Amino acid sequence: MLRIHFTGDDLARVRMAVRPDELWETILSFHRLRERRRALVFGEWRSETRARLNGETRLLAPMVPPQGYFPDFLTPPEGGGGLDAGLEALRATPPGRLHSELALAAAGRGGAAVLPGRLAALAEGDPEPLARLVGVLRSYYRAAIEPYWPHIQARVEADRAVRGRALLDGGAGELLASLPPVLRWRAPVLEADYPVERELHLDGRGLLLQPSFFCRGTPVVYRDTALPPVLVYPAVHSCAPAFSETGGPSLGKLVGHTRSAVLQAIRFGCTTSELARRAGVSLASASQHAAVLREAGLVVTLRHGNAVLHTLTPLGAALLRGGAAAEAAG
Questions:
Q1: Is the pTM of this model over 0.90?
Q2: Which helix (H) or strand (E) covers residue 289, if one does?
């Protein structure tokens, strides 16, 4: 069981990550790459990704086990500023921390106190193996994450919209209560099933909530409690393929003033009832328009309590920006 203990100051400092974190998605996707479950959801992604890889797994596998602890330095807090910022922070990891965290990862797999050669060189803080690790992570990211980044962004943005609405409706407590069912808010403690017993006391530092597309089942926190507290949790639960094709015949339906008005109404996120009111259409019509836009890959829909919340995907936002630019030019 994981228990995260909040004070009043911590509740005031709960915040949502502004974007998906490339390094968290990279490392967590490596778990999905090697598991055999969820073939419907990730099967096609695994096949496509494996075809692009060129030996990156040989270095990553010893330090990122299929389950359990992996080194905190692989996902530095600076990664919230983008892949380059995260990799530069990783490159600057002190040798002492490299050695202790790699030793913990090896011990978690039943390894001996002596690290295997490849990890031993990395643990010494030698710039060459550290630079090699940075290169491998960047290469893996390009193969496994970058081609799917717009879809990952859309899912995380949709989750952020749900959490943001909960925060507006009921404050930090409602936000924490709205998290996926794997997390349970029992004030002043947030609980989750976890591989080991963990008690995380925030002590007034607050908590960063980081939705992740590739996080499935169990949320993740840093093992080192001295690091800025972050909770990585699953952004979406679905039995559908993770990366379905967008476009095709559905886009041919996207004509006319009404659907343009619907797309504009969804711009900042809304429920079906709000969509109907903003676009001036019936509830049934609003639902039908949202379904067409969703099939075309322009909208993501998530359930929030008894309502559903519609948000734009990057493709939908780009189409909206393009339409506005064309209208202005006209």
A1: no
A2: helix 283-295
